[in-house]
Amino acid sequence: MIVFDLSCTAGEHRFEAWFASSDSFADQQARGLIACPICGDSAVRKAVMAPRVGAKSNQAGGAVVAAVPPGEPANAVPAEVVRRVLAEIAAKQAEMLPQSRWVGREFADAARAMHEGRAPEDLIHGQASPEEAQALHDDGIAAMPLLVPVVPPDLAN
């Protein structure tokens, strides 16, 4: 098995995926089977990665320093820190969602109704188009995207 850091071309989102081999990655990429977990873009490419190289067995353990990939700022956050923070965000979101009500595609209307006092205040989550989300923001209605994609209840197994 091999792990690759990947990125989509649409949103430049970075993520990692495991493959049986480099050929397996190339085959799946050619058939459009790999998609960005954040935006769904199937135009995915390998991202620059710093290999993990262990110290020689005959030397005392010292700090292993990875070279900064070309084009990356010298103060870039290490990938392991990003992975840990994303895992913590996902866990917190999974803890909070059961306390919220799924409203599906009616999210923008439900949020606007609560903001205008036509519906009681409630914790909700659902789907909104980018235009609907921008209109909510422009009207001063507090709404934010979930950082981890959610499967709508009617599509879950």
Account of the 3D structure:
With 157 residues, the protein is α+β, with helices and mostly antiparallel strands. 29% of the residues lie in helices and 15% in strands. It has helices at residues 22-30, 79-96, 107-115, 130-138, and strands at 2-8, 14-19, 44-46, 101-104, 124-126. The strands form 2 sheets. Strands 2-1-3 form a 3-stranded antiparallel β-sheet. A two-stranded parallel ribbon has the order 4-5. The longest helix has 18 residues, at 79-96.
Key descriptive features of the protein:
two-stranded parallel ribbon, 157 residues, 3-stranded antiparallel β-sheet, alpha+beta
- Rg, please? 21 Å
Distance between the termini: 28 Å
Nearest-integer average pLDDT = 81
* Beta-strand segment tally: 5
Helix content: 25-40%
Short description:
It is built from four helices and five strands. It is of the alpha+beta class.
Topology:
Blueprint: E1 2-8, E2 14-19, H1 22-30, E3 44-46, H2 79-96, E4 101-104, H3 107-115, E5 124-126, H4 130-138
Parallel strand pairs: 4-5
Antiparallel strand pairs: 1-2, 1-3
